[in-house]
């Protein structure tokens, strides 16, 4: 059985990382337009670097929760038949043990050089305007996909969706495309679809089944069911 699991900020909420839309449009006190757009970075790179330095510091202080751990366990069962597509830029899936992950919105612990396109693991502070370890230019930026930029690996994701037997969305509001359109793409290609979310989302009605509750409860229960089908 080929499974694609899409995760959003809600899977990391119980680890202590704020979601985007539960904080009435503010992300840690910042408007998205001031810290998560190419224009903001052009205008004031130091503020953007400081914002992501804070996010990296915060990430170091939290740990994966039972939902991340259950998905890592599922990968041990399904192997290459499972793909986790995450909108999150945290590394909690990796730290839980998942290996087959696509970060469609990039990764907090990676830096990208706007000049040489080099990527560098980055877990300490970028400082104000750091020099690229590759080409030496002061053009390093957080390797995250900002509003108005293209998400990563969409062709790979769409190929997986078309081949999926089951599509599961965990902890995502369905507010942002293209991720919000994945359920329809999977369903049209014949997959069963399941939503696991704290509340109903903007796309709940598009799923064959939508369960409400915390991810740390719903995901382990669902994985246990996949492991030993009760029916
Ligand atoms: N368990 C399960 N779901 C939860 C939990 C929880 N403990 N807590 C919150 N949720 C749900 C909320 O009900 C909401 O539907 O997680 C969802 C979080 O939605 P958003 O904050 O919109 O996060 P997300 O869907 O990942 O946002 C998508 O938008 O801001 C951009 O690029 C950013 O990747 C992000 C994208």
TrEMBL record:
This is NAD-dependent protein deacylase. Its EC number is 2.3.1.286. It is found in: Cytoplasm. SUPFAM superfamilies: DHS-like NAD/FAD-binding domain. PANTHER family: NAD-DEPENDENT PROTEIN DEACYLASE, NAD-DEPENDENT PROTEIN DEACYLASE SIRTUIN-5, MITOCHONDRIAL-RELATED. Its cofactor is Zn(2+). Zn(2+) binds at residues 113, 116, 132, 135. Substrate binds at residues 52, 55.
